[in-house]
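JOB MANIFEST
job_type = single_chain_structure
chain_count = 1
residues = 349
[input]
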Amino acid sequence: MPLKNGKVEDDFRIQKALPTINFLRKKGAKIILITHLGKGGETLAGVAKVLNKYVKAKFIPEVIGPKVRKVASEMKPGEIILLENLRNNKGEKECSLVFAKELAKLGNIYVNEAFPVSHRPDASIVLLPKLLPAYAGLQLEEEVKNLSHTFKKPKHPFLFILGGAKFSTKMPLIKKYLKLADYIFIGGALANDFLKAEGYEIGQSLVSDVNFGIKALLKNKKLIIPVDVVVKSGSKFINKKVNEVKKEEIILDAGIQSVKNLAPLIQKSKLILWNGPLGKYEAGGAKATKQILKLVAKSKAESIIGGGDTVALISEMKMEKKFSFVSTGGGAALEFLSNGTLPGIKALR
């Protein structure tokens, strides 16, 4: 979840885990919460503070060891403890069986309510469910059910809006959904690759350094790319046609006409899948994403939204309830949409 100076900026993912936590608490379970944060080295102390706004949970600043075992053994029914960041122990990312067995000693039942990291083959994701009776959390079940709507008999017309960066993770999605969807609108840094392949100047904008065979994709009439963009020129933000960008400028967002072109497609769609922002929102390129979010919210389409950055904007705009489903996953949602499953989901079988 987004953090600034150790403080949680958006607690959307905590809120989505609460139904499972509360269900177990009411049944008298002793609940030991384990989770990831960052790449390791970060503390969950700030997360514990936010969690305690919703449920009373004691924070234990250790992952495994005698102190953790002692606290776990003394728990009363309905009590909740939160262990320190699993990634602070190298056994987590190394998928160590020794580490997984240490964790398994603490409980009788394993529940995966960590969809956003279920694409990671980490010890707590793929080994723990093999050592204990394992179940999917309520939110994890919702993720699988709703995201599956986009590749199992999807409604038509079907519009897929794809933004963000990391072209390598998005390319399989583009190829898959060119077969499944009626239209794919490409925004964000991904659009820069397409504009460059079309022969347009993209200035100092973020672009992939690998050739993904984009020229062949551009022949597909289902594919829609921006016709205008917002660039940063010096300290100014200017809306320009895609053929007017200069070498010293940076593309930050989709332009006014591109948003207008998308509006009628949104209105007539019965299913809209969206992953990733349409601009570099932290640098002032959030306008198009916000405008399109409002249009999607007003439409009658089934709307399924994913991607950590897009979700942060939805939370900021207080629009979580305006869409059919908002996924907690970023990379996990992408991988699930591509492959139809994840290592963490397979491990539950």
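[summary]
The chain has two domains: 3-141, 149-337.
The domain at 3-141 is CATH 3.40.50.1260 (Rossmann fold).
exit_status = 0
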